[in-house]
Amino acid sequence: QVQLVESGGELVQAGDSLRLSCTASGRTFGMGWFRQSPGKEREFVSAIIWITGNTYYGEFMKDQFTISGDNAEKTIFLQMTNLKPDDTGVYFCVGDPSGWGRRAVNWDYWGQGTQVTVSS
């Protein structure tokens, strides 16, 4: 079982930028991020597939979020800009040994989550 450890979440002001990091303890096919906001279902934010370098984003996510990573370091980043109160939530790092998808069930490995709070 691959362990994922996120960091970088904190309390910020609306309009601020923030960068989240996640490091895996082992190899994965891809890694990504989901978000759980208060009162909402867990939603897909972004993913990166190591073998192709392709990146994918959830609906409306690409304007604010940029995923990047280093396969050798087994680490991904989520650069978030122009943060809004609606971006508040727990951001989960995910990984999978063989695939990916925009649904939570597509990912086998989950981190504990890092809290991002955006105040107005």
Give a short summary of the structure.
This protein is mostly beta strands. The chain is built from no helices and eleven strands.
Please, could you describe this protein's structure?
- This protein has 120 residues and is mainly β.
- It has no helices and 11 strands.
- It has strands spanning 4-7, 11-13, 18-24, 30-36, 43-49, 55-57, 65-70, 75-80, 89-96, 109-110, 114-119.
- It is globular, with a radius of gyration of 13 Å.
- The mean pLDDT is 96.
Keywords:
11 strands, 7-stranded mixed β-sheet, 120 residues, mainly beta, 4-stranded antiparallel β-sheet, single chain
Topology at a glance:
Blueprint: E1 4-7, E2 11-13, E3 18-24, E4 30-36, E5 43-49, E6 55-57, E7 65-70, E8 75-80, E9 89-96, E10 109-110, E11 114-119
Parallel strand pairs: 2-11
Antiparallel strand pairs: 1-3, 3-8, 4-5, 4-9, 5-6, 7-8, 9-10, 9-11
What structural category do the secondary elements indicate? mainly beta
SSE run: EEEEEEEEEEE
The total count of helices amounts to 0
Radius of gyration: 13 Å
| Quaternary organisation | single chain
Helicity, in percent? under 10%
Molecular shape: globular
Give the percentage of residues in beta strands: over 45%
Global mean pLDDT: 96
Largest sheet: 7 strands, mixed
According to DSSP, the number of beta strands is 11
Whole-Å distance between the termini? 39 Å
| Residue windows where pLDDT falls under 50 for at least 5 positions | none
